[in-house]
Amino acid sequence: MRYYESVVDLIGNTPLVRLRNVTSGLPATVLAKVEYLNPGGSVKDRIALRMVEEAEKSGLLKPGGTIVEPTSGNTGVGLALVAQLKGYRCVFVCPDKVSEDKQNVLRAYGAEVVVCPTAVAPDDPRSYYSVSDRLAREIPGAWKPNQYANPANPRSHYETTGPEIWEQTEGRVTHFVAGVGTGGTISGTGRYLKEASGGRVRVIGADPEGSVYSGGTGRPYLVEGVGEDFWPETYDRTICDEIIEVTDRESFEMTRRLAREEGLLVGGSCGMAVVAALRVAASAGPDDVVVVLLPDGGRGYLSKIFNDDWMARYGFLRTSETAPTVADVLDRKGGQMPELVHVHPTETVRDAIDIMREYGVSQLPVLKAEPPVMTGEIAGSVAERDLLDALFTGQAQLHDTIERHMGPPLPMVGGGQPVSEAVALLEKADAAIVLVDGKPRGVITRQDLLTYLGTH
Fold it and tell me: Which tens digit of pLDDT belongs to each residue from 130-187?
């Protein structure tokens, strides 16, 4: 009889699959390392097993203990699988941008899930890093793997992922491409491949637009599980030869193509990595072999990337080729004023009133940065009538900062959605922010809709 003692024994030895359609016209061979065939559905199974085993050896994790980890889902699944086998309790802390599907998967494995806001600084007490630190201190017998600083993270890839790729390609791999999150996958795998090839293999990191690896500040992007707003200890800066920045739109479009053209139902970070791999392959030769690591499967993203309504709501998809869209209304406004008239949280009530008067608007989004901004950088909004009431009743002074008097952010509508969606939305709101490619592009009001409809 052939069988395994547990699903943990199935971790690793994932196959390489040649990409044939999305690579059309490119000279190099592009091979995908399909990590969703791990039992927990992602590359993170590898580090979960190694981190738990090392903690047991060192005495950091004792029988009956609790594993506490900030995770966007996949590391949690891997840890939950291993914990279930070994009898540990799991508490995972997720940012709120992680899909409900992925949170429910963690719960299905018996883990407890705590959800925290994404758009706060890492040192904010509400951030998922800070909350996990607090829980690790408060829960008796708790151990925090800390995948961002745990040397077992890159070591697991140095000892498994790298050797697998080298053996599967018979040493012919010339380029290795992977997304950079904690940095463990690319650092461990990349180091092994460089050593095995005598430095011949080039290692390329794929990174979301706005992440620190590609020169950003950590501004909030939509693709999940990759990029960072700080530099993890598990990332070795000497390994990557190049970092390629990829937008949310490029990532999501390629993710959908991989399902439809290659039969690979994978997550958004996989699409991001393939975009980078295709750029590499375009300048490579016919004898080159580009290996791109696909970290997870797409079933946790069915309500997002593979959902046309979600894609349209964030301005990635046009829902109709014939019906007028919200972006058409925004374009109709023309150059009458800046694209996104706004105010910052630290500006004063007087400043907000002056801006409203200058541009003839009655509400403003409150932004944490200068445009172009990401959706996570919208702090709130202010309305003319609310400021007037607050000033009249003495609840506000002209020198007060806006953050003391702002309301919730304006509702959002995708630029590719039909005008009817905006009409319905503005029945209950005075204004809405229009998203194009997942980013705030402008504000439309009922008056803008009336002007547009009156001329069409």
Answer: 999 999 999 999 999 989 999 999 999 999 999 999 999 999 999 999 999 999 999 9
Which pLDDT belongs to residue 141?
A: 94
Query: pLDDT under 70 in the chain at which residues?
Result: 72, 334-336, 456
Instruction: Output the CA torsion 161→165→167→172 (10° steps).
Output: -150
| DSSP secondary structure letters along 213-263 | GGT------SS-S---SS--TT--TTT-SEEEEE-HHHHHHHHHHHHHHH-
Closest to 281 measured CA to CA, from 294, 291, 271: 291
Q: Could you give the C-alpha distances from 262 to 18, 42, 419, in angstroms and in order?
A: 9, 18, 35
- Separation CA 430–CA 410 (nearest Å): 9
Alpha-carbon distance 382 to 403, whole Å?
9
Q: Which two tokens stand for residue 397?
A: 């002074």
Whether the CB-CB separation of 77 and 109 falls below 8 Å is answered with yes
Predicted structure pTM score? 0.89
Structure tokens at 283: 């300048």
Distance CA 331, CA 343 (A): 22
Nearest Cα residue to 221 out of 447, 448, 437? 437
Q: What pLDDT is stored for residue 15 in this prediction?
A: 98
Contact 412, 435 (CB under 8 A): yes
At 78 the pLDDT is: 95
Rounded Cα distance between 224 and 94, Å, is 11
Burial class (CB in 10 A: 0-12, 13-18, 19+), 87: exposed
Catalytic residues: 44
